[in-house]
Specification:
Number of strands: 17
Largest sheet: 7 strands, mixed
Structural class: alpha/beta
Radius of gyration: 18 Å
Number of helices: 7
Oligomer: single chain
Order of helices and strands: EEEEEHEHEHEHEHEHEHEEEEEE
Strand content: 15-25%
């Protein structure tokens, strides 16, 4: 059973009972990011289907953030930093094509991935750097944006817009949900979820399944009150570059690098927060994790 998408209360309007410390950014009434994505009940758990948000031919919460950043101002083009396997490459490429502007991505050196090839097909220019640490490609993208005058789409979409857009989506999380389970890459979706629960005065426990680097510093920057929350961060047994052995749950296709790694942790009455779904679901892992056999 799906809770239909509805338009959110005007951002910037304090909800009854809200005790927000960080005020919301203003989103115009015509902004599609104000539409609540549905919550579904499937096989004993809830699912927050943020992957059903669609714009410019891409889906999910990250697409919502990219669209908000790219379409809110006059831009000569887009610049981003990304891992070679991140859905962010395709998101930026599709949003730029929709807006009729060029886009460039700075990524670590290495072989082409399906994400890189698919993004190039819709016009993304990909620049690779041998010193491929995240700090290097982030710095290169920032310098590029300043030099070219293009709009920067931050690595991991680390920005206020990402936090607020996710924060608003907590509005229809069922109060009876036992836990919120969410994959944690950059940690920005998690920060937004915690703010949204705070807005609603809900103390619903949160389980963050860490699939990348330690998100603690980024969480402290964007949700400084996260540590007292009933939150548990657990690391996936799989390396970031490994594809989960199971990539579908109760008939819903999950991202093999992110959401699918949450499956082993799900328990009855949890709500799985599905951040998004990539354009090319197959073949993204450098290594495919083996299924365990009895």
């Amino acid at each position: 059973r799906a809770v239909p998408g509805v338009r959110l209360p005007g951002a910037g309007v304090t909800r009854v009972g809200a005790t927000s410390v960080l005020p919301l950014l203003w989103f115009p009434a015509s902004d599609p990011s104000q539409l609540l994505t549905p919550v579904e009940r499937r096989g004993g758990i809830w699912m927050k289907r943020d992957d059903l948000f669609s714009v410019a031919g891409v889906q999910g919460g990250k697409a919502r953030t990219c669209w908000a950043l790219a379409s809110s101002r006059e831009s000569r083009g887009l610049v981003t930093a990304s891992s070679r396997m991140s859905p962010q490459l395709n998101i930026v490429a599709h949003v730029a094509r929709k807006l009729g502007i060029p886009a460039r991505a700075h990524v670590p050196a290495g072989g082409d991935t399906p994400e890189m090839r698919a993004a190039r097909e819709v016009g993304l220019e990909v620049v690779q750097w041998r010193a491929g640490h995240n700090s290097v490609i982030v710095a290169r993208a920032r310098e590029d944006a300043l030099r070219s005058g293009r709009t920067l789409i931050p690595f991991g979409m680390e920005c206020r817009e990402a936090v607020d857009a996710t924060r608003l989506q907590v509005e229809n999380v069922p109060v009876e949900a036992r836990r919120v389970v969410v994959p944690v890459g950059s940690g920005m979706s998690l920060a937004g979820i915690l703010w949204g629960l705070h807005d609603r005065n809900l103390r619903t426990p949160v389980l963050g399944v860490v699939v990348g680097a330690d998100p603690a510093k980024r969480l402290a920057r964007w949700q400084p009150y996260w540590r007292p929350w009933p939150i548990q961060l657990v690391r996936s047994a799989l390396d970031y570059h490994e594809v989960a052995p199971e990539t579908a749950f109760e008939g819903v296709q999950l991202d093999p690098i992110y959401e699918a790694k949450c499956i082993p942790f799900l328990e009855p009455e949890d709500i799985l927060w599905i951040v998004g779904v990539r354009q090319c679901p197959g073949g993204y892992g450098v290594k495919r994790a083996k299924k365990k056999t009895c």
